[in-house]
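[step 3/7] fold_predict: job queued, chain A
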Amino acid sequence: MFMDKVTLSNVPRIGDVLTFLEIIKSLNV
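[step 4/7] structure written:
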């Protein structure tokens, strides 16, 4: 969880987009 927070802090936009895409992909699959 800490690593995720650090990554999001470094790149909040890209991290948010990637996380959102991953969640959508998981739901679709």
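[step 5/7] annotate
Residues 3 and 14 are 15 Å apart (CA to CA).
The two ends are 24 Å apart (CA to CA).
exit 0
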